Amino acid sequence: MTQETAGAYLSLKDVAEQAAMSYAAVKRDIENGRLAACKIGRKYFISSSDAAIYCRNKKENQVADGYTVKEILEIIPVSYAFVIGLIRQGHLPAYKSGRRYMIKKEDFRHFIDNNKAF
């Protein structure tokens, strides 16, 4: 086997595992042109070099010190819709990572401190 054929391509499932993302999120990135892939039958294959770059970029864009909306719900007893409303109204700073909102821990602490009743 040449270097070109030995381990040159990864399955979509393998890339999703390496990037710590869901299968559907990686497939969506392929369909939206954010990740190059070839499709053979119903399966997608990604070159190992493209997969490495994709995984590195995804890990760099993730906030290590932040919360998802679901994690916020575990901290304060409010509804999902209430938190989304705060984000959309600009009261709680957040950014989108894929399809989910991420809130930096320092922004959440600042939000809580500014909304104390006493």
Describe this structure in words.
- By secondary structure, the chain is α+β, with helices and mostly antiparallel strands.
- The chain folds into two domains: 53 residues, Multidrug-efflux Transporter Regulator, Chain: A, Domain 2; 49 residues.
- Helices cover 48% and strands 19% of the residues.
- The chain has a three-stranded antiparallel β-sheet. Strands 4-6-5 form a three-stranded antiparallel β-sheet.
- A hairpin with a 2-residue loop joins strand 2 and strand 3.
- The mean pLDDT is 87.
Set out the fold topology.
Layout: E1 9-11, H1 12-19, H2 23-31, E2 38-40, E3 43-47, H3 48-61, E4 66-68, H4 69-75, H5 80-88, E5 95-97, E6 100-104, H6 105-114
Helix pairs in contact: 1-2
User: Which parts are unreliable, with pLDDT below 50 for 5 consecutive residues or more?
Assistant: none
Largest sheet: 3 strands, antiparallel
* Major sheet: arrangement of strands: 1-3-2
- What order do the helices and strands follow? EHHEEHEHHEEH
The amount of helix comes to 40-55%
- Average pLDDT across residues? 87
Class inferred from helices and paired strands: alpha+beta
What portion of residues belong to β-strands?
A: 15-25%
CATH fold naming of the largest domain: Multidrug-efflux Transporter Regulator, Chain: A, Domain 2
